[in-house]
Automatic annotation (TrEMBL):
Residues 219-381 form the Helicase C-terminal domain. Pfam families: DEAD, Helicase_C. CDD domains: DEADc, SF2_C_DEAD. PROSITE patterns: DEAD_ATP_HELICASE, HELICASE_ATP_BIND_1, HELICASE_CTER, Q_MOTIF. The keyword Signal does not apply. Keywords: ATP-binding, Helicase, Hydrolase, Nucleotide-binding. Residues 1-29 form the DEAD-box RNA helicase Q domain. One of its GO terms (cellular component) is cytosol. Belongs to the DEAD box helicase family. This is DEAD/DEAH box helicase. It comes from Shewanella zhuhaiensis.
Length: 407
């Protein structure tokens, strides 16, 4: 199959060809026809599968098929909501690349920079706006932007937006939208919150779930190392010294923990920088640039960065601890093994995380067997209480059926 089969406008086909896109990915082949037909859509697909183009191409095609209004109004016709500043910039870059020469005007709005710095592009007129919920709310409160003209709405990384506490903002934003619109949700996981939002905002959505075939070899190799908490830094330093990973993304549960780990890694000779919400936008961008350029080999991030970063060919992700939210484990390891490349995801499991480990296995419906690393074997005298009950998958299934109008 080629992109020409989707009846996309010529400017989009030319840009796809110029960017080296020869054939649609699985998620694109499934999602683009449904969106081109005007259907509401829910897509469950991992990062690196091409889902950004899967929603941008139909959006751009629809905008090109319509008569554009006067461009001097700050009122977009299409809106993409994303959870983080980094992802906002990445989707914006993809939209400008795919829409190059088409006449579609694209703008972005994200926090961490003065509101006024983004007003010029928006006031000049915008067809497609990519925005984070918080910054969009700022514009709506100041009446610098209208969104009642939006007829095509996309939530990218919808589950992460909800995990970050944006449900109230999402509902406030959707109240300002027009009633007639097409809505799509793209996400790596479908939790209860996603089904709840889908039920309230979508009409009989089509469902696309992209999963690797059971016979396929996983692109991400997962290893769980049992280790005492006090030895994690030494073990991490050993792994960094022994392996020739060009880049390593390490996840810490807290901002303070990320900063402390960076300081300790630098002290023992490893180039490392942090990525978390307490850093200024300028510092975050500089740290990410240093990491991508290779001047810092290790990026230590909190989960706020788990879904927003797009690091090409990242070889290794390391969980310093298991995340409290089980879905975040999927988000974290999804930073590696992208777009057909293989990747390695390591988790340093100390006894205090055993309950989270059990819940994660139940959530994933597969075993994640801990292993020992010679020279860093755990102290077996440490014990923890096992949880008496785990989450109920039946509740998720019920919410899913309701969202699809089947229950």
């Amino acid at each position: 199959m080629s992109f020409a089969a989707f009846n996309l406008p010529s400017p989009l086909l030319d840009n796809l060809s110029g960017a080296g896109f020869s054939a649609p990915t699985e998620v694109q082949a499934a999602a683009i026809p449904a969106l081109m037909d005007g259907r509401d859509l829910m897509v469950k697909a991992a990062t690196g599968t091409g889902k950004t183009a899967a929603f941008l191409l139909p959006m751009l095609a629809k905008l090109l098929s319509e008569t554009a209004p006067e461009r001097n109004q700050p009122s977009p016709r299409a809106l993409v909501l994303v959870p983080t500043r980094e992802l906002c910039q990445q989707v914006y870059d993809a939209a400008t690349q795919l829409g190059k020469g088409s006449g579609v005007k694209v703008a972005q709005a994200y926090g961490g920079v003065p509101l006024e710095s983004q007003l010029k592009a928006i006031k000049g007129g915008v067809d497609l706006l990519i925005a984070t919920p918080g910054r969009l709310i700022d514009h709506l409160k100041k009446r610098t932007l209208r969104i009642d003209t939006v007829s095509f709405l996309v939530f990218d990384e919808a589950d992460r937006m909800l995990d970050m506490g944006f449900e109230d903002e999402i509902r406030a934003i959707t109240k300002k939208l027009g009633k007639v619109r097409q809505t799509a949700l793209f996400s790596a996981t479908f939790g209860d919150g996603v089904w709840r939002v889908a039920k309230s905002l979508m009409t009989s959505p089509a469902l696309v779930e992209i999963a690797a075939a059971k016979d396929d070899k996983p692109l991400i190799e997962e290893r769980i190392y049992a280790i005492d908490a006090a030895r994690k830094l030494a073990f991490l330093s050993h792994l960094l010294g022994k392996n020739d990973w060009k880049q390593v993304l390490v996840f810490s549960r807290t901002k303070e923990g990320a900063d402390k780990l960076v300081a300790k890694l630098v002290d023992v000779g490893h180039g490392a920088v942090a990525m978390h919400a307490d850093l200024s936008q300028k510092q975050r961008e500089q740290n990410l640039a240093d990491f991508k350029a290779g001047s810092a080999r290790v990026l230590v991030a909190t989960d706020v960065a788990a879904r927003g970063l797009d690091i090409e060919a990242l070889p290794c992700v390391i969980n310093l601890e298991l995340p409290f939210k089980r879905e975040d484990y999927v988000h974290r390891i999804g930073r590696t093994g992208r777009a057909g490349a293989s990747g390695l995801a390591l988790t340093l499991l100390d006894p205090s995380d055993e309950a989270l480990h059990i819940e994660l296995e139940t959530f994933l419906d597969r075993r994640l067997a801990p292993q020992w690393y010679q020279g860093f074997e755990p102290d077996l005298t440490i014990t923890v209480d096992r949880p008496r009950s785990l989450s109920k998958a039946a509740q998720k299934q019920k919410a899913r059926k309701r969202a699809l109008g089947k229950g």
